[in-house]
């Protein structure tokens, strides 16, 4: 065991070779100490590696990483390659423990052992659902017991449900959610209905999988309220899939109260790909444990330690969380200030676009974080998923605009409704010109469609005359 060491977050740790630790005192979230904040010129320099010809208003998909954090990652990679044995035996797991400790403070978990670092939220979902499948196979859960998830769950999570839960004999129920959505009450109402369906015929709901921020369409879900409803209704465990949350919306493990919670750090917390955390509420001794799906030498030492070594690979993304935190703290208000400014800006840009196109937002501003859905002009004729994808590709290749497009099928009886929505993001590198470029591209496409229709009408009249 190494001697106790101190870091700049005022924790005193006792490090063990396997990455576990004891902490002498709880600490507060990391706070900014410097009074000198980053300038617009410095922000531009940090992201000068971005393609300047592209209006990048899709931070939600792949995130971003500033040059200072990329440099820290490169130093870590070279440090490993210089002397791999020393790096592994003396430095790697201590570095991962430091990253876990920072994350623990950021999300207000009680203990660092509740925080594991994994590649991404998809891996975290596989860990939780693999554990659920074992519970069915081992007879802890009965065939036909229910796992609940939102209809707008991420596609990879739906596939994991199929691979783990359905194959093991579980019954998956999807919660249908309205979109556009007008209030949290609409979501709560549909969630309660799904719980009633799940409990019908004496079935037990073993797990609820709830998004914190749905991906497409993007809406901030009232997770705290839904977790409380799950507790009241006897749902055994709750897993929050929050791929977009940390750095985008408020994240507090004690307030949310879920059993499992995951979020990526490469989307909205400026880490390089890929890194996510999985929070697992501490269970009494003897309780069933989660395990990493890649089994290596640390199997059986707890998920956090298993995840810290899954074989020889590049762990540098997991080691630069301190550098990402240092970057965040160059901004006024730290991550809280970034979140607020991103939210205010994305709402302002969303309203500007909707006004320009005569459409509407997909949700009220208080139901979005740093992303918002904006209705597209109906004249674009988006009538299926392929149309939405085609428009996205066209905007990228012909106009230099990167933005996801969502197709929302008309409900029964709806005529002339908005069927296409853009999911716009705002991050610190974005400028108003990015959104004006998108607006102008769509306006040009609308004008082209109108011109084409007029031309077709004229051609038709000419054909009749001859």
UniProtKB/TrEMBL annotation:
Residues 91-362 form the Aminotransferase class V domain. Keywords: Pyridoxal phosphate. The keyword Methyltransferase does not apply. Residues 1-31 are annotated as: Disordered. It comes from the Eukaryota. Signal peptide: none annotated. It holds the Pfam family Aminotran_5. This is Aminotransferase class V domain-containing protein.
